Amino acid sequence: MEMTKLILKISVKGNKSYYYNLLRFLSLVPPYTGLTPNEMKVMSLLLSKYQEKSYLPEKDRHTIVFSRDMRREYREDIKISKENLDNIMSSLRKKGFITYGKVVDKFKLNRSKIGDEVLIKFIDIK
């Protein structure tokens, strides 16, 4: 039986859009299912900034990504208050996506390693 592939093409503009759309797809599977839309927006900003600063040593990257200046930029980007961002960051910590000043390694979705194609394979459970 010949299989037909379903190919979805999603236009993205830069890393923020890439990560946000990737997280939207991943929100169908645990542990991403629990992310709210605002948490996905913040995570996509964090991941985008990690990617942008990939030339820096890991420790320096963490410092920059979670700096006050960057947090202000995140707030302005998604138009939320400081308190709202603090609550979202706290929620992401409780859900295990970030720790204080760092994205948890298993959730660092590196675009240069993943590439621009994501394969979703459905497996029948018997």
In terms of DSSP E residues, the strand content is under 5%
Mean pLDDT: 86
| Number of discrete helical segments | 6
The radius of gyration over CA amounts to 16 Å
Q: Helix/strand-derived class?
A: mainly alpha
Number of strands: 2
Overview of this structure, please?
It is a single chain. With 126 residues, this protein is mainly α. Helices cover 52% and strands 3% of the residues. A two-stranded antiparallel ribbon has the order 1-2. A hairpin with a 2-residue loop joins strand 1 and strand 2.
Summed up:
The chain is mainly alpha-helical. The chain is built from 6 helices and 2 strands.
Features:
mainly alpha, two-stranded antiparallel sheet, 126 residues, 52% helix
Break the fold down into its secondary structure elements and pairings.
Blueprint: H1 14-26, H2 37-52, H3 58-65, H4 68-78, H5 82-94, E1 98-99, E2 102-103, H6 111-114
Antiparallel strand pairs: 1-2
Helix pairs in contact: 1-2, 2-5
